[in-house]
Amino acid sequence: MSIASRYGRNTIADKLFLLGELVLLALSSMLASYIYSFYSSPVPLDHRLINALLFTASVMLCALSVGLYDQKLRESQKGIIKRVVITLAFNAILLEFIVFQLFSALHIGTVYLAMASAIAAFLLSCFRAFFHYHDITRISRRRILILGAGERASIIERRMRRNVDKRNFEIVGFTPIEGDKNAAIPEHRLIRFDYQNDLFQFVTENNIDQLVIACDERRNMLPVEHLFKCKTRGIDVIEILDFIERETGQIAVNLIYPSWVIYANGLDLNQRFKTNLDYKLNLVLAVLLLTVTWPIMLITALMIYLEDGRKTGAPIFYRQLRVGFDGKPFYILKFRSMRHDAEKNGARWATTNDDRVTRVGRIIRKYRIDELPQLMNVLAGEMGFVGPRPERPEFVHQLVKDIPYYNQRHNVKPGLTGWAQLKYPYGSSAEDAQEKLKFDLYYIKHRSLFLDLMILIRTVEIVLFGKGR
Question: What is the distance between the alpha carbons of residues 108 and 69, in angstroms, rounded to a whole number?
Fold first, then answer.
């Protein structure tokens, strides 16, 4: 087995889990089509197989859009069942009103689709309950030894305390390295041994799969020969920055250094990848979304007008200066969700329970409806669908001074949604801005058409479950 396959994000248990759900979905479709054939008109075998493939692929896509394949999903069993039911409802709408309208010859019947959905809902809920109860994903967790117990290593201890954060690995312990600074790692988590002479022996005797280099001082402190021997024997050796990037989907800005920025793969600004969903595709998507959402926008505008616009003469829309691609300013367009005098005392961060937000504003902010007018910014080429969210110049000016590499997020076009919006809750401070920057830098480094599409699909979960501000 190769190192890549051994230590990739998709473990054996993950693959078994996905395979199990694929089989159950195909089985649900085949069983439903068989029952339909038995009690109604016969369905040819080739139609059954094609429908099974369509049903399986469509359900997997809908499940992704509601977060069922989020590795760090934290939901009760009741919450999982709710998402499964919503997934199958979305799937039924997608197949019945879009796919089968385009390919009517493949349509078996509405009763078949209802039966397949009901069977799949039962099987998927039971299957996920079984996986959760037995914690089957533990069978393929790799065993990790952290070389270091100082400030750098403590970041792993602080950020990966929950089981959901360590879904793919188990930390055996932290080995103090000479030169480490004092850090708050519990004594019971420390493993002390003569690492200069016995590292390879310790690794083999304790079935260590991966070594993470997290010491504060490296010069002449690490047993290079032992690390080389571990590497040649199939034990992965990884630097803490890459480890955090791989496991959390963010780049730890407080750990990176200039040479890493220069030499790291993926941060080059190749013209083809400045925006993966280029203007033409963004234009098509914006037009399609406008044709679907214009009734919602019309109702929203009317509600804002009736709530306070009619009395105060306050505008329905809100234009605000933001920093865009290459640091160029532009005016973002939104539905007004705050009182018209919200910034009479100057610009300030919006907070979770901001008293400046109107009643209508709370609803449209929660479901991101206030962002819909930004489709006009997309049509103007000022924004894309996916990218870091644009920030206000007043805040950017200070954030650039306080947060290293903050300006790098302006190397790509800002977006309606982004990786940080999927991974981090709504932020209202400079500290939150720094946390979001970690995800923005990860997106800039790994941006691709596939990642953009995944972010767009997963954004449905944010809108559907009201994860806006």
Answer: 29
pLDDT band at 308 (very low <50, low <70, confident <90, very high): confident
Give the per-residue pLDDT at 65: 87
What's the confidence (pLDDT) of residue 191? 95
Q: Which of 126, 118, 127, 121 is nearest to 35 (CA)?
A: 118
Find the mean pLDDT for residues 434-440. 90
Q: What are phi and psi of 199, to 5 degrees?
A: -60, -50
Distance CA 312, CA 268 (A): 50
What is the Cα–Cα distance from 109 to 103, expressed in whole angstroms?
A: 13
DSSP 255-300: T--HHHHHH-TT----GGGS-SS-HHHHHHHHHHHHHHHHHHHHHH
Inter-residue contact 123 to 115 (CB < 8 Å): no
pLDDT tens-digit series, residues 205-255: 999 999 999 998 888 889 999 999 999 888 999 999 999 998 888 888 878
Q: What is the pLDDT of residue 351?
A: 67
Question: Could you tell me the sign of the dihedral formed by the alpha carbons of 31, 91, 387, 241, in that order?
Answer: negative
Nearest partner of 50 among 121, 103, 96, judged by Cα:
103
Q: Which of 290, 303, 295, 326 is nearest to 410 (CA)?
A: 326
Cβ atoms of 9 and 246 closer than 8 Å: yes
DSSP symbol at 412: S
In the block, tokens 């979960």 appear at 461
Cα distance between residue 343 and residue 337, in whole Å: 13
pLDDT-wise least confident of 124-128, 163-167, 272-276, 382-386: 272-276
Q: How far is Cα 411 from Cα 388, in angstroms, rounded to an integer?
A: 10
Going from the C-alpha of 315 to that of each of 211, 307, 309, 336, 375, the distances in angstroms are 58, 12, 6, 7, 18
Both structure tokens of 111: 């009763």
Tokens of 298: 């019309």
Phi–psi pair at 338, nearest 5 degrees: -120, 170
> Could you give the CA distance from residue 64 to residue 422 in angstroms, rounded to a whole number?
13
CA-CA distance, 312 to 305, in Å (whole number)? Answer: 9
378 Cα distance to chain centroid: 22
From CA 125, how far away is CA 85, in angstroms rounded? Answer: 9
Average pLDDT over residues 410-432: 83
- Which residue, among 106, 142, 124, has the nearest Cα to 69 in the 3D structure? 124
pLDDT at 104: 87
The domain covering 141-248 belongs, at the CATH homologous superfamily level, to NAD(P)-binding Rossmann-like Domain (3.40.50.720)
Q: How many residues does the chain have?
A: 469
Q: Where are the domains of the chain?
A: 3-137, 141-248, 273-464
